[in-house]
Amino acid sequence: MLRQIINGKILTPQGWISGGSVVYEDGKILEIKNNSYIVPEAEVIDAQGMNVAPGGIEIHIHGGGGRDFMEGTEDAFRTAIKAHMEHGTTSIFPTLSSSTIPMIEQAAETCTQLMELPDSPVLGLHLEGHYLNKRKAGGQFPENIKDPDPKEYIHIVEDFNCLRRWDAAPELPGALQFGKYITSKGIIAAVAHTEAEYEVIKAAREAGYSHATHFYNAMPGFHNNREYKHEGTVESIYLMDDMTVEMISDGIHVPHTIMRLIYKIKGVERTALITDALACSASDSNKAFDPRVIIEDGVCKLADRSALAGSIATMDRLIKTAVELAEIPLADSLRMASETPARIMGVYDRKGSIQRGKDADFIIIDSDINLRGVIAMGKTIVNKI
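^ that's the sequence the OP posted. Answer follows.
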C-alpha cells in the first residue's frame, strides 16, 4: 500500500527538511519531498510538525518484555523484539551474554529462522562473550567464561551464518588469532570486558578488532600501578582513531559528562547509542533472567551491588537522555541511534537514514522528545499522533 508521512520535520543525510514528506510503499522509501503535497491514493500520516527520523538500530540488547535472548526460543525472541519495537527500535541484533555452546547453537538457529522471514527486523546475532576477562566479568555468567577455543568458535562460525559480531577480551591467550579468524569471515570483532592497555589494544586493532563494547563499562581507564601511571583501555581506544564505540545512554552506566566526552572525542560517526537492555526492560516485570540481578535506581545491578548488570532502557530513552542530560544536539543523537550503528554493522546500504530506495523505517518524536510514532518496513507499529 502506498503511504505518505506529511507535515514533518524530516532528518535526512543533508539535514532537516521542515514541512516535508516521505512517500513509501512495500517497505521501501520512494521519495523524500520538501513539501507536503499529498500523493494521489496515498494513505496519509500527518506528523503535525513533529520530527521524523530514521528508526533506531539496536546493536547490543539482551532482551525485553520479560524475556531474554539466552532462552533461545522463538517465543522469547519475538516477545523481546516486539517490546523494543514499541519504543523506537526498528532493526535489532539480538545479543547473548556469555553462554554455553548449546545455548549459542539454539539461539543461532532461532535467529537464522527469524532473519529469513519477510520484512524481519532481525539482522543478525551478537555474542558478548564468552571469551572475556573474568576479572572484568561484571554481570556476565562467570562459570561460562573461558579463553578463546578454535574448536568451539570455528564450529559456530562455520555452522551458522547469522553471526554478525563477537566480543572478546584481546589480552586472553588466543584472542588475537580469534579476532583475525572471525573478521576474515566478515564478523565484527569488538573489545569487551577487558583489562587491555595500549600495546594490547594496538595489537587487537591490527588483528581486526574495530569496535569497543559498552565503552567505559567493564574496562579500566587511567590508573596507577604502584608509583607508575598507566593508560587504560579507555584512553587506548581513544587513540585508535578509526575504532568505533557504543555507549549506554541511560544516564546511569556512564555519567552524562562522560557521554558528552565520548561524543566530543569520538564524534557522531564513531559513536553508537545502545541499551544493553535486559529482559526486564520494556516490561512491567521487575524480574531479570539472571537470578543474581536486581533492579534499583532505574538500572540492573548484581544483588551484592558489586557491578551494574545491564539496563532497563529503551531506544526512545537513549535519545532523550543524550539530548536532555548530555546536551548532544537532537540530530546527532538520532544519527547515533540509527546511522552510526548501521554503518558499524554494515547495513547502511539499506538502513540508518531516510533516503530513496532504503527501508521504510521511521520514528516520529515530538518537541519534548517523546516517541509518538514507529514505522518498521513500512508497517505502523506505534501511532500516538
